[in-house]
C-alpha cells in the first residue's frame, strides 16, 4: 500500500529487518503497527461505504417519489405510510453506516463521543504532558472540546481556532509566533491545513494529536515535514473509539531529525 507515494509500511515506521524476514520488524521512531494492520480493513470499509451510499441514493429517490405521488393524490393514508417508509429507510441506512464505520459500538454512541471530545478523547496523562511540554501558553488549532478540557485543568490557553477558516488559522499562528506560544494541532482534516500551520510556525516545540500518515488526518507533506524537520520526544496514547489510533505526539524542532 502507498501513502501518497511513500511505502505505507515505511511511512508507518515499520520496516523488515531484512528481505527474507517476514515475521520480525524493526520499528523506527514515529510508528504505529496497529494502524498499519488496520489500513486494509479501513480501505475495504470505505469501498463498502460507497456501495451503501449508491444504494441509499437509489432507494431514497424511490421513497421520495412515492411520497410525492401520495401527496399529489391527496391520499393522507398513503402519505403517512410513505413518510414512515422514508424515515425507516433513513434509520436503516444510518444504522448500516454506523455498523460499518464503528463496529461493535451501539448506534449513536460515536455521535455522543464527538460532542463530548471531538474526533479523539484526551486522557489525564496527556493533559499533564501538554502542561509539562509547554511552559508557554498553547495555541490550539482544532476542536473546541480540547480547549475546554485544558482550561478546566488550568493549562494556559492563549488562543484557539478551528480548522475551517484559513484566514483565522494564519492569524492565530502569526500571533502564536509573536507571543512565543506552543502550537497544538488536534486532528487536522485531510488536506494541507496542518502543513501550512506547521510551516508558518516558528517555535521549537509542536504538539500533534491524531494518527500518523496513512490514518485519518493531515496529508503526506505534513508527515514528510515532521519526518525531516522535527524529532519525536514523546508519544502518549489517548482514548479513541474502537478502531481509532489517535495519540499525542510531542515533537521538538530539529532539521533533518529523521522522525519516522
Automatic annotation (TrEMBL):
Keywords: Coiled coil. The keyword Coiled coil applies. Residues 42-73 form a coiled coil. PANTHER family: C3H1-TYPE DOMAIN-CONTAINING PROTEIN-RELATED, S-ADENOSYL-L-METHIONINE-DEPENDENT METHYLTRANSFERASES SUPERFAMILY PROTEIN. This is Uncharacterized protein. It comes from Rhizochromulina marina. The lineage of its organism: Eukaryota, Sar, Stramenopiles, Ochrophyta, Dictyochophyceae.
Amino acid at each position: 500500500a502507498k501513502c501518497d507515494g511513500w511505502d505505507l509500511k515505511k511511512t508507518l515506521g515499520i520496516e523488515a529487518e531484512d528481505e527474507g524476514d517476514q515475521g520480525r520488524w524493526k520499528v523506527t521512531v514515529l510508528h504505529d503497527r496497529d494502524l498499519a494492520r488496520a489500513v486494509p480493513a479501513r480501505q475495504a470499509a470505505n469501498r463498502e461505504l460507497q456501495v451503501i451510499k449508491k444504494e441509499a441514493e437509489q432507494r431514497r429517490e424511490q421513497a421520495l417519489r412515492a411520497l410525492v405521488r401520495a401527496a399529489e393524490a391527496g391520499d393522507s393514508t398513503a402519505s403517512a405510510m410513505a413518510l414512515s417508509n422514508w424515515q425507516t429507510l433513513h434509520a436503516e441506512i444510518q444504522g448500516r453506516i454506523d455498523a460499518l464505520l464503528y463496529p461493535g459500538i451501539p448506534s449513536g454512541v460515536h455521535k455522543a463521543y464527538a460532542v463530548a471530545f471531538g474526533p479523539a478523547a484526551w486522557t489525564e496523562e496527556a493533559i499533564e504532558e501538554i502542561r509539562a511540554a509547554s511552559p508557554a501558553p498553547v495555541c490550539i488549532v482544532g476542536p473546541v472540546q480540547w480547549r475546554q478540557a485544558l482550561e478546566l485543568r488550568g493549562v494556559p490557553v492563549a488562543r484557539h481556532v478551528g480548522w475551517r477558516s484559513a484566514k483565522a488559522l494564519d492569524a492565530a499562528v502569526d500571533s502564536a509566533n509573536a507571543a512565543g506560544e506552543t502550537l497544538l494541532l488536534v486532528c487536522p482534516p485531510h488536506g494541507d491545513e496542518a502543513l501550512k500551520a506547521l510551516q508558518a510556525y516558528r517555535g521549537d516545540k509542536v504538539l500533534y494529536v491524531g494518527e500518523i500518515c496513512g490514518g485519518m488526518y493531515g496529508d503526506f507533506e505534513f508527515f514528510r515535514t515532521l519526518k525531516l524537520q522535527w524529532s519525536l520526544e514523546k508519544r502518549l496514547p489517548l482514548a479513541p473509539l474502537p478502531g481509532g489510533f489517535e495519540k499525542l505526539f510531542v515533537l521538538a524542532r530539529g532539521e533533518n531529525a529523521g522522525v519516522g
